[in-house]
Write a structure and sequence with these properties.
Distance between the termini of chain B: 46 Å
Number of strands of chain B: 13
Order of helices and strands of chain B: EEEHEHEHHHEHEHEEHEEEEHH
Oligomer: heterodimer
CATH class of the largest domain in chain B: Alpha Beta
Order of helices and strands of chain A: HHHHHHHEEEHEH
Strand order of the largest sheet of chain A: 1-4-2-3
Strand content of chain A: 5-15%
Structural class of chain A: alpha+beta
Radius of gyration of chain A: 25 Å
Largest sheet of chain B: 6 strands, mixed
Strand content of chain B: 25-35%
CATH architecture of the largest domain in chain B: 3-Layer(aba) Sandwich
Number of helices of chain B: 10
Helix content of chain A: 55-70%
Distance between the termini of chain A: 19 Å
CATH superfamily of the largest domain in chain B: P-loop containing nucleotide triphosphate hydrolases
Largest sheet of chain A: 4 strands, antiparallel
Helix content of chain B: 25-40%
Chain lengths: 318, 296
């Protein structure tokens, strides 16, 4: 095992060095900008802001007021594309380079077997990927912490936060690695393996975003308020955009039937049409973890399936 | 040296292999034995299955049918891996590694490793250990690949076209290195090559493949003694009926035939003892006799 690990390290050390540089740079930026955010909060500028989705405004001119969260969003964007980057630059050459050069034949003609050769290099790549993605996810979480779910900060349901932090990022990065590895085995060319990885990992990333928006894996909660009394505030919930009226028999209708926010008109309209309550659908902030675990299970499961396919094909293809 | 009970260097029974993509059999019904301690020439035309056979013996491919054993063990298994070295045709090496790195890799990936031997093979070619493999000429790359194979101290060395695309001087040098190491350690060598003259001097066993089947697997001297090159008048040809005519060629009324006599040859023939090259060439050309033989 030692020999193949040495070879894996010798071939992947440049990638490991790149990963270390990325994490260190992100950590330095996070420390700098997070300190700036904390200074802004300490200055008292945001003390009057209510929690909730409504913009916090400045007293003199009424303009919305924000913390400097753009750099944080940039880290989130990097984390969003991280699985693709890992797949293209780490996964695709993992077997693809050896297949392209034929060097696996030379290595396997030495005293090592296929299983050992593959296990060593994949283990090192998976460890590197897990540490890289885990570190970036934790950095995001730490940096985000003063601005979590604040009108002047970043809400949990923004893609950069929901996908760019937490354990699902590690699963997504490992999925990218598994796609690249299998593509390298199948295509025998680093470049075409990279192209396939870009396509597949990108498509799955888009699909995951779609499942979030469609609330496919984490169904929303229905918040019902009796009669025309004020609805429970949306706060930091993630609205589906579905809201409306419910009749005595339980039928749900569009809010457009009574398009009044409150007051006498609403009351008259609702009694006239026989509506007894109003509702809206949203995911509460606590669903952040439900989304995280759903994505982790989905992408981690897919990564395991791809790894299994790779191992099964290894004997026939290499 | 090699007792009768010692397992053969190579032993194949009913060996068959087909590439999925092409679908046709690359090797079929191959049965042969190569004894230990021999330097074996694996000969055949392009596509005859030489590389496939060596890849099977090296454990890089698995037979679709039958079996092949190397030194009595299954190829690719732990027992065979440490005792068999395979140098594939394109001699793949990591281009970004230095020569020293490449040899270090050999040391790390093999249970037994002879660094002095590997370094000597490299140094004999005037190659600096600090040179990058990707920047070496093809001849020097072959030498580094050979150093990797010899540093392993194999008991069986499988070489797939080791001399292709090398100039004659380098070819001679590499052959000399190979033979010196082989003699020193009694390594069995199986070597596929198109360069028949190179084989004449070095090989003492011949395996000849034709269209995926083994046609000959014999001692080289026995082959030389078992063949005769006959030259005579075309009308004498019926006297050859009882013998195996490997290859025949007519020039006007003169007939030249490579024959495996089964007993004394009748008729009036000028008889010559053919060289190994002529015998192999005769067997390789066999089957295209009609068209090419007449034209020649």
């Amino acid at each position: 095992m030692k020999g193949t690990l040495w070879l894996a390290w010798r071939q992947q050390r440049a990638l490991v060095a790149c990963a270390v540089v990325v994490v260190l740079a992100a950590a330095a930026l996070a420390a700098y900008f997070r300190a700036g955010m904390l200074d802004d909060l300490r200055s008292g500028l945001f003390d009057h802001c209510d929690p909730g989705p409504l913009y916090c405004t400045r007293a003199p001119d009424g303009l919305p007021q924000f913390l400097d969260v753009e750099p944080l969003r940039l880290l989130g964007a990097l984390n969003l594309v991280l699985p693709v980057l890992v797949g293209v630059f780490w996964g695709a050459p993992l077997l693809g380079r050896d297949r392209e050069l034929g060097t696996h034949q030379m290595v396997l003609s030495q005293g090592v077997g296929r299983a050992q050769w593959f296990a060593s290099r994949f283990a090192l790549a998976a460890l590197g990927t897990a540490v890289l993605s885990g570190a970036l996810a934790l950095l995001f979480r730490w940096w985000w912490e003063p601005a979590v779910n604040r009108s002047y900060g970043v809400f949990w349901y923004e893609a950069t936060a929901l996908t760019g932090s937490g354990p699902s990022l590690v699963a997504a990065a490992l999925f990218g690695l598994a796609v690249g590895t299998l593509a390298g085995l199948l295509t025998r060319r680093v470049l075409s393996a990279a192209a396939w990885t870009l396509l597949v990992t990108g498509a799955v990333a888009v699909l995951v975003q779609w499942t979030h928006r469609a609330r496919l894996l984490v169904p929303p909660h229905r918040y019902v308020s009796d009669g025309w009394q004020p609805k429970e505030p949306m706060g930091d919930k993630w609205s589906t955009g579905h809201y409306g009226l419910i009749t005595g028999s339980g039928r749900r209708d569009s809010a457009a039937e009574c398009p009044f926010p409150s007051g006498r008109e609403l009351r008259e309209c609702m009694t006239g049409h026989g509506y007894v309550s109003r509702y809206y659908e949203a995911n509460p902030a606590g669903d952040y973890w439900a989304f995280q675990w759903a994505d982790t299970a989905l992408l981690g499961g897919l990564a395991l399936v791809l790894l299994l396919v790779t191992v099964l094909l290894l004997r026939r293809r290499v | 040296m090699t007792g009768p009970d010692e397992p053969a260097a190579l032993h194949a029974t009913e060996l068959g292999f087909r590439y999925r993509a092409r679908g046709e059999w690359a090797l079929r019904e191959c049965g042969f034995t190569v004894p230990r301690g021999r330097i074996t020439a694996l000969v055949g035309r392009n596509g005859a299955g030489k590389s496939t056979l060596l890849h099977l013996a090296g454990g890089l491919l698995r037979p679709a049918h039958g079996e092949i054993r190397v030194l009595g063990a299954a190829p690719g298994g732990g027992a065979a891996r440490s005792r068999v070295a395979l140098l594939t045709q394109d001699k793949p090496l990591y281009p970004r590694f230095t020569v020293a790195d490449t040899l270090r890799m050999g040391g790390r990936l093999n249970a037994s490793w002879d660094q002095p031997v590997a370094e000597r093979v490299v140094r004999e070619g005037g190659i600096a250990l600090s040179a990058r493999v990707g920047e070496l000429s093809p001849g020097r790359r072959t030498r580094v690949a050979l150093a990797l194979a010899l540093g392993k101290r194999p008991e069986l060395l499988l070489l797939d076209e080791p001399l292709a695309d090398l100039d004659p001087v380098v070819r001679g040098e590499i052959m000399a290195t190979l033979m010196a190491e082989a003699a020193e350690r009694e390594v069995s060598i199986v070597l596929s090559s198109h360069v028949l003259p190179d084989l004449e001097q070095t090989c003492d066993w011949v395996v000849l493949l034709r269209a995926g089947r083994v046609e000959l697997s014999e001692d080289a001297d026995a082959l030389r003694e078992g063949h005769a090159l006959l030259t005579g008048h075309v009308e004498e040809e019926p006297t050859l009926r009882e013998h195996t005519v490997v290859h025949r060629r007519t020039h006007g009324r003169q007939l030249t035939a490579l024959v495996r006599p089964r007993g004394p040859v009748g008729g009036t023939w000028h008889v010559e003892r053919p060289g190994l090259e002529e015998i192999l060439l005769g067997h390789l050309q066999d089957g295209t006799r009609g068209a090419k033989g007449a034209a020649a």
